């Protein structure tokens, strides 16, 4: 490895890991200055960070399955609710513990995602419209099942493993490795990148864009099921909803996806989303330590989201302005040298 490549790798590593580290340092300084305590003070803080991190990470990965290809799936939240309610209740009725709840939820999530993918391929309805329709259907199914009680996990000792930090970290690591292989090293991942570039060219080159699309939807369904299990155990219950209320799961995690796509240029899509989710969870935990109202926290987070989107939309102009500034500086330097 030559020096230029080494410098590039070091720069990319600093840019990738520097965002969560920088946010942690900033929030740590602010928190200690205001409250006299740090962002992470005890094991409870670590557990809360791990649980919410696992949920947000899986949802962000699920969104990234389809969003880069121009498919915005609003049904992911309803898929999560359906998968966890059906999978969790069936597992508990069979006397299976936390592993069984996670397994059955993933199965139902995969089925729900597969159905949405097939529906999209067969009907060719605009993804956003299809997602809204499927969300309403899944919400009604979840609401009508099990007496509209959803899933109760509070006080169930059989689910204790789902709250264990070591198990949560193991699941996050496993998801990272599996998704890293699927997105970066598998034929599916190569075809997915080609489709993101240009679907018509990818299709003309022999790639089956429809099967790749169905696989993306299927994987997304399994990922939101994992997220739903950890989120339900953290909150103690999962209640069914109606009227497209499940779409909050999608819109509430767009910041992580967009930040992850921005950081992905320094590493890859999986690591980028991992660093983005870690950054946002540290920021959220730090804001909660300051005892701010939820409304104030939401305003701060979405204001940062707005700044990120403004930057992404004007990134080419910013780069052109920087290059112009460098050319002007170089011209002034040459003119000064010639004047001597």
Automatic annotation (TrEMBL):
Gene Ontology CC: one annotated term: plasma membrane
InterPro entries documented for this protein: ABC_transp_permease (IPR001851)
Pfam hit, one: BPD_transp_2
Transmembrane segments: 12-30, 50-69, 76-96, 102-121, 128-147, 159-184, 205-230, 242-263, 270-290, 296-314
UniProt membrane topology term: Multi-pass membrane protein
Superkingdom as given in the UniProt entry: Bacteria
Keyword list, A-Z: Cell membrane, Membrane, Transmembrane, Transmembrane helix
One MF term in the entry's GO annotations: transmembrane transporter activity
Locations listed in the record: Cell membrane
Identification of the protein by name: Ribose transport system permease protein
């Amino acid at each position: 490895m030559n020096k230029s490549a080494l410098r590039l790798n070091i720069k990319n590593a600093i840019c990738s890991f520097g965002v969560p580290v920088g946010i942690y340092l900033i929030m740590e300084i602010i928190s200690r200055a205001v409250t006299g305590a740090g962002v992470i003070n005890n094991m409870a803080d670590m557990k809360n960070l791990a649980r919410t991190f696992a949920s947000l990470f899986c949802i962000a990965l699920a969104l990234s399955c389809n969003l880069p290809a121009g498919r915005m799936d609003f049904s992911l939240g309803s898929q999560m609710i359906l998968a966890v309610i059906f999978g969790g209740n069936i597992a508990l009725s069979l006397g299976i513990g936390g592993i069984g709840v996670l397994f059955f939820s993933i199965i139902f999530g995969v089925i729900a995602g597969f159905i949405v993918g097939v529906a999209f391929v067969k009907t060719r309805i605009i993804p956003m419209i299809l997602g809204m329709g499927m969300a309403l259907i899944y919400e009604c199914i979840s609401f009508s099942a099990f007496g509209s009680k959803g899933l109760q996990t509070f006080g169930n000792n059989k689910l204790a493993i789902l709250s264990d930090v070591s198990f949560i970290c193991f699941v996050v690591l496993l998801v990272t490795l599996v998704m890293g292989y699927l997105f970066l090293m598998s034929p599916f991942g190569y075809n997915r990148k080609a489709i993101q570039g240009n679907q018509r060219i990818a299709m003309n080159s022999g790639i089956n864009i429809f099967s790749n699309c169905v696989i993306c939807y299927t994987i997304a369904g399994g990922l939101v099921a994992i997220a739903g299990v950890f989120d339900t155990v953290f909150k103690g219950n999962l209640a069914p909803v109606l009227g497209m209320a499940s779409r909050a799961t999608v819109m509430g995690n767009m910041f992580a996806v967009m930040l992850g796509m921005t950081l992905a240029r320094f590493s890859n899509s999986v690591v980028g989303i991992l660093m983005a989710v870690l950054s946002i969870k540290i920021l959220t935990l730090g804001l909660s330590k300051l005892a701010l109202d939820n409304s104030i926290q939401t305003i701060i987070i979405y204001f940062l989201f707005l700044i990120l989107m403004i930057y992404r939309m004007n990134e080419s102009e910013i780069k052109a302005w920087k290059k112009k500034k460098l050319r002007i500086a170089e011209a002034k330097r040459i003119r000064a040298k010639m004047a001597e």
